[in-house]
Amino acid sequence: MTDLYDLASKDRLAFWADQAKRLFWHKPFTKTLDWSNPPFAKWFEDGQLNASYNCLDRHVIAGNGDKVALLFEGEPGDTKTYTYSELLSETKKAANALVGLGVQAGDRVAIYMPMIPETIIAILAVARIGAVHSVVFGGFSSESLRSRIDDAQAKLVITADGGYRKGKAHPLKEAVDQALADGNCPSIEHVLVVERTKNEVSFGPKDLWWHEALEAAASEHVAVGFDSEHPLFILYTSGTTGKPKGILHTTGGYLTGASYTHKTVFGLKSETDIYWCTADVGWITGHSYVIYGPLVNGVTQVIYEGTPDSPSFERWWQIIAKYQVSIFYTAPTAIRTFMKIGREIVDGHDLSSLRILGSVGEPINPEAWNWYHQVVGGSRCEIVDTWWQTETGSILISPIPGAFKTKPGSAQRALPGISVGIVDENGVPVERNVAGYLTIDEPWPSMLRGVWGDPTRFKETYWNKFPGKYFAGDGARFDEDGDIWLLGRIDDVIKVSGHRLSTAEIESALVEHHWVAEAAVVGAKDEITEQAVVAFVILRQDEIADAPSETDIAKILRDWVTQKIGAIARPRQIMVVTELPKTRSGKIMRRLLRDVAEGKPVGDVTTLADSSVMSAINDKLHSGASD
Ligand code: PRX
Q1: Whose CA is nearest to atom 21 of ligand 1?
Q2: Residue 411 beta carbon below 6 angstroms from any ligand 1 atom
Q3: How far is the CA of 492 from the centre of ligand 1 (A)?
Q4: pLDDT by residue (tens digit) across 334-359?
Q5: Cα(346)–Cα(41) distance, rounded to whole angstroms?
Q6: CB-based contacts of 405: which residues, under 8 Å, 6+ apart?
Q7: Closest Cα to residue 192, out of 215, 150, 234, 161?
Q8: How far is ligand 1, taken at its centre, from the CA of residue 495, in Å?
Q9: Is the dihedral of CA 201, 203, 209, 210 positive or negative?
Q10: DSSP string, 73-91
């Protein structure tokens, strides 16, 4: 593995060209990178390829069509296996069905689905015809779905009658109906519905069953090559403002990053490994490490539909033992949840097949790292703590198995081909053991190509703070050995159970309620979920006619946020206050509110316009008058 570091440091672009050549190119590229107009990068620009062909046809043509691609485990216990050949023939039919519905290269298709094989088929079918998928996590509300459909001007939605979660058939089509109600989302021409739960659904003129459309479709479909910079997908993620950003990834560079990192970071032995990443395809981890990375690399992987606790917390460990999973990739929140329950839940299962354990989405604290290592990995597995973002497309910082000794809590080194810096406010590199801002100093193939429809926001958010460098939004430090320790977000983005949320987005959802005059949201430290949403609200007394109690108000507002954004954004706590701490220029001092929410002594209040505000909030809190 040290060879990779050497190769990349000798000639970074030649290194990336070599990685890209692991893909199948319908037309080989001759240029590796055009960085003449930063931050707009073009990778492998004159090459052409097809993402779906790289995930499927290629393996079948190479004689591996009978290899199992997906081992699907439904939450109720149903199972289904797809070989690469079977996945390819379903994807071909789906591609033909999409063409039949008028979807063309460049059109956007929204996908709002549970974790079932059809979701993967739908995504690969969209990519196969050069259309652009925009997957919306099935836990988002109909309003969130609506705004994402509108922003991307999607032509089609692919959904399901429902999906199983926590032992229940969770409706999805209903949310699509709500999103499209009253003439909303006029760009949508059709809704394709996969039958999964047999939930009752209402069908209107735009709706079609997926299975009927596939049955009627021709079974042959020839995948053509698209330009390397052809858009592959948009994925919305939270930023510092209220409006989620549509992060755009393009074909050649993204596939190079996803497949190279998947192979390298997990030390893949594609012949024998059984791989399982627990992420939902609604998030970037599902895109890069359930769909594109593993399928390009031709692995056999487990797909599980439901939650870890259904029907009991034994479920994940049963699945690992049943399928003999060798590479397991999950989030620290899950590990901390199991830690709290106790090791007995894990100990009863044969996990001896495990070889590599991955962590993603938030910093993993050394206690959780050690527990993962000892209890899950039997002290014999390597742990790869992988740092990356929706925007980076693939893992950028992580140990490589066997390359050096791992350290609990540190994501360690930039991968070969990636240049990382840590700088102070003025862009000057900081000394070792000093905290600073994490930057990526050279372009990389799977970097985002833009924010959908908003080039200014792309430049301002990521490239203006430290000119010429990508600003990640995370704090970090190098230790004395040069290993990287991630210190969390330095902006108003928060991470709850590894999910990325914007405090501003939750605040705007709250003030949309007619009771709320003003709101401030913070991410307070949480033992299990890393951070939790805590909101402070000022009420409009005139609007609350029958004076419900503050507990009732808090409950109603928490439900409101769930309805507006989705259950992942539901505040853990809402405190009703009469004023918010603000600087003289009117900026809310979230730092002080975070102290209150975490039960810590409140920090320096001297810059507040009115320093008594914090004592009022504190007094109220300690008198118990909050939810
Ligand atoms: O703060 C970092 C945190 O997750 C953010 C990116 O979130 P998202 O775009 O949703 O992607 C999550 C999955 C890649 C980062 O800015 N983060 C991600 N992985 C780690 C991490 N923080 C610390 N350690 C990690 N391994």
Answers
A1: 362
A2: yes
A3: 14
A4: 999 999 999 999 999 999 999 999 99
A5: 46
A6: none
A7: 161
A8: 8
A9: negative
A10: E-TTS-EEEEEHHHHHHHH
- Check if 523 has its Cβ closer than 6 Å to any atom of ligand 1: no
Instruction: Using the predicted structure, report yes or no on whether residue 180 has a pLDDT greater than 50.
Output: yes
Sort residue 10 into left (φ over 0), alpha (ψ -120 to 50) or beta.
Answer: alpha
Q: What are phi and psi of 357, to 5 degrees?
A: -120, 130
The SS3 call for residue 475 is strand
- Residues paired with 192 in a beta bridge: 158, 208
Q: Which of helix, strand or coil describes residue 438?
A: strand
**Token pair for 150:** 């509108």
Tell me the two tokens of residue 454: 């908003």
Mean pLDDT of 568-575: 95
* Strands 436-440 vs 420-423: parallel, antiparallel or unpaired: antiparallel
At residue 562, what is the residue type? T
Q: Decide if 275 contacts 286 (C-beta within 8 A).
A: no
Q: How far apart are CA 625 and CA 527, in angstroms?
A: 23
Q: State the closest ligand 1 atom to the C-alpha of 489, by its place in the atom list counted from 1.
A: 1
Q: Where are the beta strands (DSSP E) in 131-227?
A: 132-135, 156-160, 162-165, 168-171, 190-194, 207-209, 226-227
Structure tokens at 75: 């939450």
Are the C-beta atoms of residues 409 and 485 closer than 8 Å to each other? yes
Exposure on the CB side of residue 606, measured as CA atoms within 13 A: 1
Look up the pTM and report it: 0.95
Contact 488, 495 (CB under 8 A): yes
Q: Which residue has the tokens 């983005």?
A: 493
Give 184's pLDDT tier (boundaries 50, 70, 90).
Answer: very high
pLDDT tens profile 383-419: 999 999 999 999 999 999 989 899 999 999 999 999 9
The confidence score (pLDDT) of residue 599 equals: 87
- What gap in Å lies between CA 264 and CA 57, rounded to an integer? 23
Protein residue whose Cα sits closest to atom 22 of ligand 1: 362
Burial class (CB in 10 A: 0-12, 13-18, 19+), 602: middle
Among 135, 262, 362, the mutation site with the greatest number of ligand 1 atoms within 8 A of its Cβ is 362
* Residue 280 CB less than 6 A away from ligand 1: no
Q: Is the dihedral of CA 139, 143, 148, 152 positive or negative?
A: positive
Contact between residue 608 and residue 582 where contact means Cβ atoms under 8 Å apart:
yes
Say yes or no: CB of residue 287 within 6 Å of ligand 1: no
Residue 480 CB-density burial (10 A; 0-12 exposed, 13-18 middle, 19+ buried): exposed
Structure letter (DSSP) for residue 610: S
Cα–Cα dist 432/21, whole Å: 37
Judged by DSSP in three states, 585 sits in: coil
Residue 279 scores a pLDDT above 70: yes
